[in-house]
Amino acid sequence: MAAVGGMLASAVIKVVIGQIGSAIGREIKLHRNMKNDLENMKMTLESLEAVLSDAETRSVTDNSALLWLKRLKNAIYDISGMLDDFEADTGLLAATMNKIKMPRKMKEMQKRLQKIADNRNNYRVLPETRSKEKQVPDTRETAGNVEEAEIIGRTNEKLEILACISGSTTQGTTIIPICGIGGIGKTTLARLVFNDSKFKEYSRVWVYVSQKFELKKIGNIIISQLSQERPISDDLHSIDTRLRELFTGNRILIILDDLWERNPSDLQKLKAMLKHGEGSKVLVLVTTREKNIAQEIGTVDPFELPPLSDQMCWDILKVKSMFETRQDKERLEPIGKEIAKMCGGVALAAQSLGHMLKSKTYDVWDSIRSNHTWNLCAAKETSSTHEVLASLLLSYNFMPPHLKLCFAYCAIFPKGHNMISDDLIHQWIALGFMEPSSTFSTWQLGESYITKLLEMSFLQHSKIDSSYFEQRKDATRFIMHDLVHDLARSVMADEYNLEGPNCRYAWLKDCKPLKSSQIHLQK
């Protein structure tokens, strides 16, 4: 997905305006002119904030708007760094030097900011002309509705797979591949089969494979879920021997979710590892985006998951947007059906858009229908993925600024990483991403952000059994769908790139030596 880093500017500016406001309010170490400089800078940023909604929308297709936003974002980050440095200098000598240097720095920064503000017309960034939309009063969504939205339209496919499994009466290993584009519902379908009562007598295993194919890791995850044992060794022979012992005489259902490996040799090794145990019946469901992988790994013909019908996408949109509770639903229905068609039969697209449209006015629904982002993604992406990318980008654009920043921060983790809820909230708080509130604590805000991202399908509960983890087995863990992770990385393209000059965040387990002393790592 093309980088859309300009769309993070509104989130960053909101945080830094709050940072300046706090510095003014504390009046600590501020001498006479500095408070005035901060107030002028805050007013300039607030004026710029008023044009950011339009600028961010334009930046997806307009390179001049994107360039303006990047220059503004870099200046905002420099202001934040300047304030951090000033607050951090507690020593007498450092504080004295700062009193001398800071006024000059403030004047230079204000000039730079004002030049960016004056140049917005040159970059075709104009003041926002839309009036702020009032939202329809929100109604709490029930957990039952969330589950219903996830399974709409996949009942027949589930029955077909169950019929295929029932037709396999022989002992041994049967591998059934499910293939289809990203976001179409492969994992949801696998989960429906996994939870079916037909398999209540089976030992069940769920393995998230991901783009990094590791045969030993897959084997050890299966062992740990079947026996509650820790990983036994890095020796494939030992892993094969233990799997043979665990498989022998047993009925086992294994889900291998999100397989990307194309190497036929590695896929044959995986198949061989799963074909162990006398008198066993092992059923393996494999989800993958690529048909050639499905054909190579399967022992039966691949099950190609078709797109949802436009009506099914509309049904999901209705559930996620609480459509039936609205008084204006007759007026909205034709618009909603057109939006459903734009989802391209992709469940993830319908889910994220549906939640975003909940409580929004008629004008917002209409603006989504006619938004140019649909055409942009069609031009930049393949026809099989552009609908879901466009829908995710639109949903992201409608997030509140602080939620945008918290979501984008998740780009620092690799695909498929299990994020621990408490750790993620601690990091958000430490980095100052939370919106100030007189009603809720920062921790409560963090929990509400997690809930919101779950409702939007931007986060998903981890499918790996907690017993697999050696530490913190009771922790709540989340993962990101691959396409959602792609969006986060495209939004945070400048900030997480260790090779670039503007890197600000990195996952410490994955970091390299940094060349610039100006790069600050944050865990």
Topology order in helix (H) and strand (E) letters = HHHHHHEHEHHEHEHEHHHHHHHEHHEEH
Mean pLDDT across all residues, rounded?
79
Radius of gyration: 26 Å
Count of beta strands: 8
| Residues in helix, % | 40-55%
Provide tags for this entry.
523 residues, alpha/beta, 5-stranded parallel sheet, 3-stranded antiparallel sheet, 21 helices, 8 strands, disordered C terminus
Briefly characterize the structure.
With about 525 residues, the chain is an alpha/beta fold. The protein is built from 21 helices and eight strands. The C terminus is likely disordered.
Provide structural commentary.
The protein has helices at residues 9-26, 32-59, 63-88, 92-118, 143-151, 155-167, 186-194, 215-227, 236-247, 264-274, 291-297, 310-320, 329-342, 347-357, 362-369, 373-380, 386-397, 401-409, 421-430, 442-455, 482-491, and strands at 172-179, 203-210, 251-259, 281-288, 303-304, 419-420, 460-461, 477-479. By secondary structure, the protein is an alpha/beta fold. A five-stranded parallel beta sheet has the order 2-3-4-1-5, with helices on both faces. The chain has a three-stranded antiparallel beta sheet with strand order 6-8-7. Strand 3 (251-259), helix 10 (264-274) and strand 4 form a beta-alpha-beta unit. It is globular. Residues 128-150, 378-384 and 510-523 have low confidence and may be disordered.
